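Action item from last meeting closed. Structure (225 res):
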């Protein structure tokens, strides 16, 4: 048990350092990345992330879900790219363009904020069967102090106008919503669960481990979608 915890802590530290470095070195952090699935048949899953750039590890999990029989789109809205309202509008247009009417929307970390705004403010509930959030900072995260020089970073600070608005929401479709969180999340230690939603706590240490390394996270998505 102790060895497993130490391994998870080391993994979390490595992922936290490596991800921003790769994003900057590959210079992929300034544009929206959309990886569409055009040929695969089956029910649609739309994975939305919002960080520095598209994380290549999510390509592995996308392929995992495709092998499970799903048609999977993966979208990254970089935090540098405008604000959360703009990303929700872009997501809405994507859903309309692809004529998706019965998909499962998966929001990874701050990508879940984009998904929630789309669902609650832009009529997105009519186009999805289920919403799954993973380690979502619905009440903000103090980690965004490091990115407070950009608008979307400031929007994710606890007590911001955006996080206050989310706190005041009465979720329209709680029965369609599943919130997944790590047992200990150093980046989002609180506020990952929406009132009325199904709560799933995975016994793992680390925000990045939750959405980048842990197979159970994606087994839950495959089962619930």
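Sequence:
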């Amino acid at each position: 048990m102790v060895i497993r915890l130490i391994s998870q802590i080391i993994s979390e530290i490595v992922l936290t350092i490596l991800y921003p470095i790769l994003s900057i070195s590959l210079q992929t952090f300034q544009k929206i990345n959309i990886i569409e699935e055009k040929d695969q048949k089956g029910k649609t899953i739309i994975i939305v992330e919002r960080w520095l750039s598209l994380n290549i590890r999510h390509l592995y999990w996308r392929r995992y879900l495709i092998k499970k029989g799903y048609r999977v789109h993966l979208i990254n809205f970089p935090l540098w790219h405008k604000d959360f309202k703009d990303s929700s509008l872009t997501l809405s247009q994507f859903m309309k363009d692809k004529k998706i009417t019965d998909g499962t929307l998966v929001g990874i970390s701050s990508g879940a904020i984009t998904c929630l705004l789309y669902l609650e403010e832009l009529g997105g509930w009519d186009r999805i069967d289920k919403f799954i959030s993973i380690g979502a900072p619905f009440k903000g995260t103090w980690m965004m102090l490091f990115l407070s020089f950009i608008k979307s970073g400031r929007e994710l600070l606890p007590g911001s106008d955006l996080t206050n608005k989310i706190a005041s929401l009465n979720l329209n479709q709680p029965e369609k919503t599943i919130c997944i969180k790590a047992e200990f999340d150093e980046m989002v230690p609180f506020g990952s669960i929406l009132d009325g939603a199904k709560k799933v706590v995975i016994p793992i240490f680390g925000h990045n481990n939750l959405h980048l390394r842990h197979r159970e996270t994606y087994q839950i998505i495959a089962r619930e979608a």
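Note appended to the action item: Residues 12 and 206 are 6 Å apart (CA to CA).
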